[in-house]
Amino acid sequence: MEPPPSWWVLTYLNHTRSWNELYVQAWTNFPDHLSMAYAYHKPRRQGIWRVIRGKEVFCGYKYIWDTPIIVHQNRPGDTYDHIWLLQRLESDRHIWYYLFAPLGPYGLEIQGPLMHVPPPEVHLWTSRMYVGTKEKGIFYTDSFTGPG
């Protein structure tokens, strides 16, 4: 597999989380075969510095996990659009992930931004009670603590 002619750029990124699945869709400006690294804890980040014309220049961050879970995109080959469907996830845990291509220009790994996906929200059953009193008229409450 040949590296892309340039660094790819994410032109679109979206994720949808359900109780035990995560669906991620991304588009890039160059066709490439991307992978996803994810874990249930936030990775360490290390600064990337390069010496350009005798001056140290900050070039971004590299994300480092001890034991990430690596998943390849669902579509084979080099594509512009990339899809991942992660199943059997723990529903109460946060997920941190980033997209990457192991082989980029100059033999370097290309990493996308670090994304955080919180667990799905639990919508609890609520009701509203309307109460009429002689002193204060009609009011409503969500806490059922009474008037005033």
Would you give an account of this structure?
The chain has 148 residues and is mainly β. It has one domain (10-120): Immunoglobulin-like, CATH 2.60.40.10. Helices cover 0% and strands 53% of the residues. It is built from no helices and 12 strands. A hairpin with an 8-residue loop joins strand 8 (95-101) and strand 9. The chain is globular.
Outline the secondary-structure elements.
Blueprint lengths: L9 E8 L3 E12 L2 E5 L4 E9 L2 E10 L4 E4 L6 E9 L7 E7 L8 E2 L3 E3 L11 E5 L3 E5 L7
Antiparallel strand pairs: 1-2, 2-7, 3-6, 3-8, 4-5, 8-9, 8-10, 11-12
Summarize the structure.
The protein is an all-beta fold and 148 residues long.
Question: What percentage of amino acids are in beta strands?
Answer: over 45%
Cα(first) to Cα(last) distance is 72 Å
Largest sheet data: 5 strands, antiparallel
| Share of helix, binned | under 10%
Count of folded domains:
1
Low-confidence stretches: none
Examine the secondary-structure arrangement and name the CATH architecture.
Sandwich
**How many E-type strands?**
12
**How large is the radius of gyration?**
24 Å
Rounded average pLDDT: 82
